[in-house]
Amino acid sequence: PLSEPAEVMAPPPARRWRPQWNHLGALALALASVGTWTARVTGDAPAPWPPPQATRPLEARLTSAALDEHRDYAPLRGGAPTPAPLPLRELAGMEDRQDWRGIASAYLLTGDSRQALNYLGNAPPSPDVDSDRAVALALAHAGASEQASNDEALAVLEDVLRKRPDHPQAQWNLALVLRNLDLPLLAADAFDAVAKLGEPGWSVEARDQARALRERTLARGRAWKQSFAATRDLMADSNARLPLEEAAKLPGIGRVAFYDAVRAAPSKDAALRLLPLADVLDRAYGGSVLHATVTRVAARDFQKRGPLARDYARLVRDETPFPPAFLETLRRSGEDDLYVGALGYELTARRPVDAAAFARAADGLGDPWFHLIAERERANQEVRDGQWWKAEARVREALRTCEAERLDYRCADLRAWLTDMYRDELHRPAEAHEHALRGWQLAKKQGEWQQERLFLQELAQVARFHHIVPTAGAYFRESLARFPDDPAQVGYVHRNLATVAWMDFRVDEARRHMEQSMESGSPLGLNGAGVLADLARFGPMPGAADALSRTLSSLRQGQPRPGERALLDALQGEFELERDPAAGRALLRSALTQAEQWPDDVNARRAQARASAALISDAGRTGAFLEALTLAGRQLQVTGVPERCVLAVAVQHERTVAVARGPSGAVLGDFTQTRTAPLGQDASGLVPPAMQEALRGCEQVRVLAPPPVNGLPRLLPADIAWSYRVGHATVGHPPPVDSGTHLVVSNVDTPAALGLPRLPLMRPPPGEDARRVMLEGARATPARVLEAMGTATEVEIHTHGVFSQELSDASLLMLAPERDGRYALTARQVRAHGLPKAPLVFLAACGAARTAPFPHESFSLPVAFLHAGARAVLAATVDIPDTAGRFFHDVRERIHAGAAPSVALRDERQAWLQAAPGDRWVHDVLLFE
Fold it and tell me: Entry's SUPFAM superfamilies (predicted)?
């Protein structure tokens, strides 16, 4: 791919929810010692409370002065402690004084973080409250993953420390979170910051913690670097010491160096001298393939091989490109291991290589290590040919082979390949996260310091895709702390930190990071070019124009694919728009036209999104609101944008454009560029009141809202009938609703381990429904539901919905398990499955409309159903009560009575709110058409 490894374009803010069904055992900030305590409220008044103790059971720090006196931390070593009673009188007194933070602290000490969060919600906002809330959040997500808990707590603590950099409890708790994220060097820095505050007891403990974390981590780094240097010596000196001990500890880099040493051996004796190293590595990996490699090479004619081996070693040591003539000599020589080694170096340097010739030669060595490399290069060629599905299948199969052969170093390499593929090429960040996490675990298990750095950056990129900004920044900074003197790493990390800061609307910080990246002298890459294009809207930046020109020129020389070429033009157009508007618009229009020719190319979709957003905001800025409306329809592939009762809303970071045409068709527009924070969980405030009033005379309003607005609730008031127009325009008229089956999925037997109750069915309609097809209980598996939807003109799904960024990039519907254990219906499965009967779809599941709003496409279950062929989808963006089934049923009945879906939704919402004004969730039920 065109972009550098582990670099992607910045996504927009994501609206994040947590699954409530995952396994127990979240982080809890080392609160395991109190996690088993049971709160007991009693009428007695034990004094004092909490009872005095010589040690503290809670490693985290709370901000109440009485609880923050330093005592040694004594974690629970086994058994359950006596429950700490909560004194009724003391709690009542705190409630009378509205000491919500004190009550929350009491509950935290007994392990009841959910109650603590409830009381902290009553407290006025302050850094102290937020610091305690971070501790509670970590415990409160005990039903979610440990990663989710860390992400949430880290975000809160970083926000506190931006406001109060010297906040001792927040700084301490930050160190704990970073340590539990396994970012020891950052955790050590945070403990150092606490130590500098000079607090009695806490400073000493913080200093000890920092020293231990730093020493353990840097010792691992030194061991790897020493082993790496020892293995490299074999290339420079055929009589160098054999690194037997190092190879036993780090067989990954040991094996890489072994192959080079065998290739560089100038004589039979020099080759045979490597047998002890081969045997050490064979014991580490199992088998005798490396011993056989040495004996095979030693049997070669060194009068012919010797000079080739010397030249090979010289070129590798000097990091000089292999001349084509020398490569041809190696190919003809029959010394296949030398030929494979030389081509491998060329591939690593990203110089043109005959990938097929390399793969054939690598397979010919009969070594599974090289077979895996050959498969990776075949997959790379398939990606270049646009056959990503073949590449994906090939590398997945190679990974299975690798794991069977226990070639952990190569397995980590394949995990990195899959991470990049799923993130950059296929835009599937949930799967990218899975492979990055497992690759990181594998690298740590092996002690492979360099691979750990790689996967830290992979995890950072995936977190950035999901807009988990604090976690992304932490991964990047930890990776730089491990290689602080490497200019390439300095440049890479700072340009990515610039993107992270930009996403969080910290423009000055983004500029500083970009300046540091440019000063490093390393290439800016696609990601750096994107940041410069964004920052151009905030005024000139010294050196930016030259840096962008060099970057784009370099990227264009790398034979980019069509979608990548369009993206490069879009970036250049954005930058030029602020200097030469006419030239910028021409480039952006060209990029848009190019991108539309390649709808299945993820970079083309990125180009389309960036070019459209820039052109729409430019049109809004210049008052060309009708053009902005047309461009929004074009981005959403809506043919024939309505001339009346239509609304377009587009957000480009700090800029917002809204265009409306009411019943008269008059154009009303609004442009602002004052946004200072990411979009929240709803779209309230994006449409000015005057524009809302202009739309009230419409029977229904079609909303054209490109990502990231698409799918946000509360865009318009509850008394206006409106719907999101999504996806491709319908071709022809959909079949009548009564021409197909009415599929109802309910009473689902979700896996018992999830602990999910059955949901009640919507109220059945009066009379018989001959069209109804029921899928219930254990029969309601993802495969059966997908199959049954193929003949349905109406689909109702009554089950639990969750949103988990670790499992999917949109909401999941929880169904009965297949034989292989799979139980979730994902947006990706729905999108790949056709719905030929164009059904009306009712998703009566919690948060079924929740979406990961990537900048180039809204990815959600409703959008997936529409792409699969549904005519309309009704779904909620929030958790809904069990009684919501009746609401969906009544909307369906209104549609059957002849109402337009958006009118049916509006009328039922109004009726429901009149009867139950407190049911605010009905505002978050959306219609997608």
Answer: TPR-like
Identify which has the larger pLDDT, 356 or 738. Answer: 356
Residue 497, in any domain of the structure? no
Verify that 208 and 321 share a domain, yes or no. no
Both 696 and 760 in one domain: the answer is: no
Q: Are 861 and 811 in contact (CB under 8 A)?
A: yes
Give domain status of residue 223, yes or no: no
pLDDT of 4 over the 50 cut: no
| Region class of 334: left (phi > 0), else alpha (psi between -120 and 50), else beta | left
State yes or no: pLDDT of 341 exceeds 80: yes
Query: φ, ψ for residue 619 (rounded to 5)?
Result: -65, -40
What pLDDT does 466 receive? 86
What whole-number distance in Å separates Cα of residue 132 and Cα of residue 140?
12
Q: How far is CA 541 from CA 527, 557, 568, in A?
A: 17, 25, 20
Of residues 309 and 756, more confidence is placed in: 309
User: What is the number of other CB atoms lying within 10 angstroms of the CB of residue 870?
Assistant: 27
Better-scored residue on pLDDT, 143 or 179: 179
Q: What is the pLDDT of residues 650-709, one digit of tens each?
A: 999 999 999 999 999 999 999 999 999 988 888 999 999 999 999 999 999 999 999 999
User: In degrees rounded to 5, what are phi and psi of residue 597?
Assistant: -80, -10
pLDDT at 288 over 90: yes
405, 422, 457 - which closes a domain? 405
Count of the separate structural domains present in the chain: 5
790 and 717 both lie in a single domain: no
Quote the distance between the C-alpha of residue 86 and its chain's center. Answer: 41
759 pLDDT exceeds 80? no
Query: Does residue 347 sit within a domain?
Result: yes
79: pLDDT confidence band, cut at 50, 70 and 90?
A: very low
345 sits in which H/E element = helix 336-348
- Looking at the DSSP bridge assignments, the partners of residue 842 are 796, 874
pLDDT of residue 150: 86
Nearest Cα to 618, choosing from 662, 640, 587? 587
Q: Are residues 209 and 241 in the same domain?
A: no
pLDDT per residue over 345-362, tens digit each?
Answer: 999 888 888 999 999 999
Residue 365 carries which side chain, given as an amino acid letter?
L
The confidence band for 82, taking pLDDT boundaries of 50, 70 and 90, is very low
Question: Exposed, middle or buried by CB within 10 Å (0-12, 13-18, 19+), for 848?
Answer: buried
Rounded distance between C-alpha atoms, residue 11 and residue 836, angstroms:
33
Q: How would you write 98-129 as a 3-class SS string?
A: CCHHHHHHHHHHCCCHHHHHHHHCCCCCCHHH
Residue with tokens 């206006």: 720
Q: Check which CATH number belongs to the domain holding 900 and give it.
A: 3.40.50.1460
Kind plus residue range of the DSSP H or E element containing 814: strand 811-814
- Domain containing 354 equals 237-405
Q: Looking at 217, 246, 277, which one is the last position of a domain?
A: 217
- Specify whether the CB–CB gap between 843 and 861 falls below 8 A: yes
pLDDT at 76 > cutoff 80: no
DSSP code of residue 318: T
In a shared domain, residues 288 and 376: yes
| Distance in angstroms (rounded) separating the CA atoms of residues 107 and 112 | 5
- Per-residue tokens: 616: 């729409």
User: In terms of Cα–Cα distance, which of 105, 85, 72 is closest to 37?
Assistant: 85
Same domain, 241 and 135: no
- Is residue 22 in a domain? no
Structure tokens that stand for 148 in this block: 């989710």
SS3 43: coil
Residue 219 or residue 108, greater confidence: 219
DSSP string, 709-759: TTT-S-SS-TTS-EEE--SSPPPSPPPPGGGSEEEEEEEE---GGG-PPPP
CATH label of the domain that carries residue 206: 1.25.40.10
Residues 127 and 270 placed together within one structural domain of the fold: no
Do 53 and 176 belong together in one domain? yes
